[in-house]
Amino acid sequence: xxxxxxxxxxxxxxxxxxxxxxxxxxxxxxxxxxxxxxxxxxxxxxxxxxxxxxxxxxxxxxxxxxxxxxxxxxxxxxxxxxxxxxxxxxxxxxxxxxxxxxxxxxxxxxxxxxxxxxxxxxxxxxxxxxxxxxxxxxxxxxxxxxxxxxxxxxxxxxxxxxxxxxxxxxxxxxxxxxxxxxxxxxxxxxxxxxxxxxxxxxx
Amino acid sequence: xxxxxxxxxxxxxxxxxxxxxxxxxxxxxxxxxxxxxxxxxxxxxxxxxxxxxxxxxxxxxxxxxxxxxxxxxxxxxxxxxxxxxxxxxxxxxxxxxxxxxxxxxxxxxxxxxxxxxxxxxxxxxxxxxxxxxxxxxxxxxxxxxxxxxxxxxxxxxxxxxxxxxxxxxxxxxxxxxxxxxxxxxxxxxxxxxxxxxxxxxxxxxxxxxxxxxxxxxxxxxxxxxxxxxxxxxxxxxxxxxxxxxxxxxxxxxxxxxxxxxxxxxxxxxxxxxxxxxxxxxxxxxxxxxxxxxxxxxxxxxxxxxxxxxxxxxxxxxxxxxxxxxxxxxxxxxxxxxxxxxxxxxxxxxxxxxxxxxxxxx
Lengths: 203, 361
Known about the structure:
The structure holds 2 protein chains of 2 kinds.
Chain A lengths: L2 H22 L3 H21 L3 H25 L4 H5 L2 H23 L6 H4 L12 H9 L4 H22 L11 H6 L2 H4 L13
Helix pairs in contact in A: 1-2, 2-3
Chain B lengths: L1 H7 L5 H38 L15 H10 L11 H17 L18 H22 L3 H32 L4 H7 L15 H14 L11 H4 L9 H26 L13 H4 L4 H6 L3 H21 L5 H28 L8
Helix pairs in contact in B: 2-3, 2-10, 2-13, 3-10, 4-5, 4-10, 5-6, 6-7, 6-8, 6-14, 8-10, 8-14, 10-13
């Protein structure tokens, strides 16, 4: 077993283990941290597959930004787990139904066991040292997949605007100062020097 | 030199030799880095001292030169105190999670044409990814301390780091558009030219250069953006509950990050190890083996000198600027820096397409 396979097995066992912890831990903060670990190790596996641009972007976007905000929210919430667990048996049939539908959809798309295995998923061919993964992705992204890429961008913009409109509330008593006014202030506007005769002490 | 070590160790299995050489390279980088961090603290206290008409530390060793060692020994022998009901595992992991990415980013930093531990294709992206991980240490430290001051400090700091990362990332995109590569060595080589300083990216990308360095100061939570530890408001921010080595590891990471930001600014905008005398002096003086050529020509000493200049700016800022108010920090990051970087990204792209000289022709 070479270094590569040992690395793969270490990474994938950590990945599977942390993915299980995400759904099984009690404290939501630990769940979020386990998810961070899962993202990180899957980035490691992508690097083994020579997809270093995608792996680094995964770390940059998901670990470095998305999960930070996620952790932020989870830490601020005071979640009462007893209340959350109350309806577990009541909602179990519904949850199972959704899970079955999801698994069926996945199975339909992936298309059965003949798509898996070493024959269907051969090891990617190793490229020469001057092969640039980043350049190749850029090339296909702006030629072959231009429309899907632009579409994804539009959907993201819509999502951003939707999120902002959902959280935007105009406050009645706004106490925000105008930055322009603050910058424009000069000393003479605020300070007035008064000339006074000094008092005579030896009166 | 590496070949000589390889042949000397040839009696060992090949894999082990590779491992020894990699570990050796890491030690050659990390030990001087730790020394630089230690003496940066002394430099900070001395520089700020002189700026405030004080002498600064001058008791331990000649002119206070052994002060960092005394500080390190003192911190090592102090007791680590765990706050009541704090989560011990996360409390200990937080400083480690801060230091590890701060050191890991150095793996791809080139000091010279050849002096680099790992010359990967996407090194700029790797550095951005690693520096974006540092925020976890801050958030986890704040949460695991079980203290409201620490938590408030962590929230402030995390929001600030995430906000400035966007401007920083855009500034880097400008650099990679200009250089046409994600590799730091290639970015430095793209700034080579016959005109010395004029060829460096700080001139065509001046707004990005300024935004990058200011965002770097904000990323490392240094003054005037140090609301994370605003002493006058929230005691000391996210690491208020930390003591002894756990506390000093946060500081190691902060200073290592400062040096990294200074070095990256030098590499991306000031031509890295390129000599500013290229084109000013005749090429015969700059090339060759002689002593004068070693000093005046390209080399690691230019990179270190440029880095030292930016580190001095960090200290200078701390001595002279009052702390930003929190809403002003957010305004600067979101409403000023991001628009500037986006506009200049278009300008940079237009300059590259239009082959504007002397940088892009």
